[in-house]
Every structure is written in C-alpha cells, then in structure tokens.
Amino acid sequence: MSPKRSVSPTPDAIRTAVKEGPGSKTVMLGAKASARKIAEAMTALANAHGGLIIMGATNSRRIVGVSDSEIAREMMASAALIPTPPLILPLPELVEVDGKTLCVAQVPPGLPHVYSLRGQYLVRSGRDTRPLMPHELRVLLLNRSEASFESQTPRGATAQALDADRIRAYRELLGLPANEDADDLLLSRGCLAETDKGLRPTIAGLLLFGGNPQRWLRSAEITGVRYAGETMSDDFIREDIRGVLPDQIRRAEVFVTSNMRRGMRIRGLEREEIPEYPISVVREAIVNAVAHRDYSIRGDNIRVLMFSDRMEVYSPGRLPGHVTLDNLVNERYSRNEAIVQVLSEMGFIERLGYGIDRMITVCEQEGLPRPDFSETSAGFRVTIYSHAPSLVGAGPPANLYAHLQLNPRQEKAMDHLQKQRRITNRDYQLLCPDASPETLRRDLADLVDKGLVLKIGQKRATYYILK
User: Which fold has domain 395-466?
Assistant: First the structure.
C-alpha cells in the first residue's frame, strides 16, 4: 500500500489552515523549531491520517514566517529521516503567504508502517501530540502489517474445527469440481495456513466456516435490541446472534425486518405500503459492520440498536488505514481481506467498496436524511433514520387494516397504538368495556400472530407495541 500523491499547497489553502488553527491534521511550529520537534510532528501525523506541518506559524494562528527559508527546508527534510523507519515524504515546500515565507511539509495518508521516535510511538489526537496507548499501538501494528489479525491461527485450533458441510456448500457455490482439493481452496482464500504443525485454520476460516466460531472469539457476535422509544430503556426486545458470519448477517437482517414497523405513506393521490427502513440500506450497514470490524478487539461486539426514530449499527474498531470520515464515500481499504473476499463470493458484498454511496443514494431516493457516520473512541457507528414521522400520524388512514380482517375492537386497539405507541390490557378494557377479558386477550394474541404488534413483559407487566 503506497501513500497517495500529494498536491502542492496553495497560499490560500495554507492561509485557511493557519486561520483554523492546529488540529488532528495540522501542526504549527515556530520559526526556530528543532529537527526533533519537527520529527515528533511528522511521526504523530504518520501514525494517524497524515496532515500538514506549517513551520513559521504559531498556535495562536499568527503567520510569522521563517528567517532563512533554505535552512528551514533542509531541517524539515532531515527531520523526516529521524523516525524509525525513516519517513519517505514529499520534499518540503516554501509558500509565500501575506508577505511571509512559510515552510510546509505534507505527511500523506495511508503510510505503510508504524513509526517511532527514539522508542516512543506518537500519534496526533485533536490538537495534541501524545504517545500511543498499548491497545492503540497493537491495533495500528495489525492494521499496517502484512500479517493481519484475521490471518492468525488460534492456539489449539485444528482443521477439524471447520465445518465440512459449509466448505462443501461454498465449493458448490463457486462451481468448482468435486475432485478439487478443499484445502487448496481454503489456503488460497486465507482460511487455512501452513504451519510447523501442519494446516491450521485462521481466524478468518473459523469465522466463515467454523463449527463453533465463538469458542475461539467470544465477542464475534451481533447483539440486536429493539427499544420502544427514542432512548434506551427497560422496555426492549433483545437477541444475541452467534455462529458463522454468513449466518449472523442473515439472522441480523431477519431481526431488523421482524422488529420494524410497516405502514402506509401518502404520495400525491396514491397510498403505498413501506417498511420503516429501506431494506437494502439495513443490509448494507449490517454487512459492512461484519466485514470490516476489528476482530482483535475483545469484550465488544457488533450492536444493532433499533429506536422509534432511528437505527444504530455499531462495530468495534475505528476506520482502518487511510480511510477517514471525510473521504469515507470515495476511499477504499479492507481491514479483513480474506473475510471480504469470501463474503463477496457468497453474494453479500461487492469487493470494490463499502457500499456507502449506495446507502446514501437509497436514503435520498426514499426521502430520508442521509445516514450519519461517526467514530467513537474505539468503534464506528452508522445511524439510519426511519420513516416513522410519515408512518405514524394522528390516526391511520381509513380502512388501513381492512385487508387483515380485524374486528372493530382490534381496529380500536391499533388506533390507540398509533397515537400512544403502546397499549396494556387495562387500556384495551377501557376502550372496549363490553368485551370480556378473555375475548380481549385473544384479540391481542391474534394481533401478535398477524405480526402487527409485539408483546413485551410478562403477566401484569405485559404491554404491546407496534411492530
């Protein structure tokens, strides 16, 4: 992986950078900064997402310039050779801004190594340069090394840990002849590795074809939760989804589709039935989370959280390589190349990219806000907004439930749910005082069987919400 070719900075671009002040991709150094100070800045940016070093500007956003431009440029060039390994950077440039000469060095994104300065690993965090924490260093080493986490072979795992039926189905899917050696196929896909103890399954192989993947990676699972409102509460439905990755993807999608609302939306003079979320966007978010998460992070798993107004899909691990929130739509980098290849061949994803652009396009076509992409301290989150405002109004359209053959009592219950979002047995009795408790219980059970409502809680704490 080679760094991207840099573009010469313009005076306007440098002036804007100085005006915005120091940040995660901009370091400002005084005219008398030492070679070590420059090397610290270069190392920190190289271990992050690259950026600019502007010599002759202060942190207070003043342009002071350098007194001897050639000495400044030579010092910057020599500073790049101090880190271990030395940084191969574009030559520093002299830029005239408002009558002052600044010396500018660019550290490109996507550098292939982890860089240290006299044994210390630095990173740019906000406007500060700080040492990498041990877990951050481990993740960075894995991301930038040829031997990724997915290619490791867990101690004690043998080829017998892989499911022969799953491997056979995969071969048939690829259309390979029955006499072709399965071991060769798995070796070529990075699912088996040759070791001094013979062929052993890799992390990727166990996650894709293992009989019990969670024996080797307990946190390699998805937790799906549906909450009743817009925030986390005690009212929820939860499912922990385990097994191989292809099955996790399918079951997570089923969880979402089973727990999302469906309703009518008026467009012009026509009424159309729509789900709460575009199914293709949901599928893309789940597949991306499974394919690109950082499986080296223990104690954390993928989470699919459904609220009344949105859905959040969280995966452990920040954006990999040179991918940032700014270039997420256009840049491509795969943390788990073996997993991505096999899932692609199984028809889950396209290897050319993340599908982020497709998610945005579909949401815009559906009249929804663009999905929100954000990084947390240790992960990546996608927020998809729902059709809830257009599905839930003061009341349902006339005869909305006619095709379901609901009785008048059940239609009252559905009207109540549309307005109040939940209904209890007591609420239903107040709506239909002439019906017996047993009749009302059967009505609600029938609504559950028809897939219209979800039953939450037990006995006297039972209530129902729209599905």
Answer: Arc Repressor Mutant, subunit A (1.10.10)
